[in-house]
Amino acid sequence: MSIQNNITVGDVLLGLDETPKTTGTTLLKEALEKMDQARLGIVCITGIDGMLEGIITDGDIRRMLNTVQKPIAALMSDDVINHSITNPTIVTRETKLIDAVILMGEKQIWDLPVIDQKGILVGLLHLHPAIKTILGLSK
To answer: By CB count within 10 A, which of 4, 23, 50, 124 is most buried?
Structure first.
């Protein structure tokens, strides 16, 4: 088993078609449904121009449920942007995969939105395929 150091995020990322995404005016309930459909704990929030505006994770929602004093039905009808992280940790396609995985470990996160130089969402880096690739177990 050899560690791969020359691979970039662009070699491993989930494309836009596999990345759960929505707009900021989507109901929180619908964002949760997108997470469930994608079987990932994150939804990326974009503008109509594709610019990344934020993310919301299952952990964010869990923490919110412990702090927001609002009936769950009312909470689920909020716009997702109201509860999102609007300055998420991000990477680009050109980021070395090993550096992205180290960053994920430091931040204790499983997923990283991948943007281009203009801030447009191009995909998502998920930890499991990244680790498999680094270890030479896939691709």
So the answer is: 124
- Residue 37 pLDDT more than 90? yes
- Closest by alpha carbon to 88, among 69, 109, 58, 72? 109
How far from the centroid of its chain's Cα atoms is residue 115's Cα?
A: 11
What are residue 103's phi and psi, to 5 degrees? Answer: -60, -40
Give tens-digit pLDDT for 57-82. 988 888 888 887 777 777 778 888 88
Give the span between the Cα atoms of 23 and 54, in whole angstroms. Answer: 9
Helix (H, G, I), strand (E, B) or coil at 129: helix
- Rounded Cα distance, 96 and 32, in Å: 31
CATH architecture classification, 9-134: Roll (3.10)
Rounded to 5°, the CA angle 110-11-23 comes to 55
- β-sheet with 14-15: strand ranges across: 14-15, 121-126, 111-115, 91-92
Determine the pLDDT at residue 36.
92
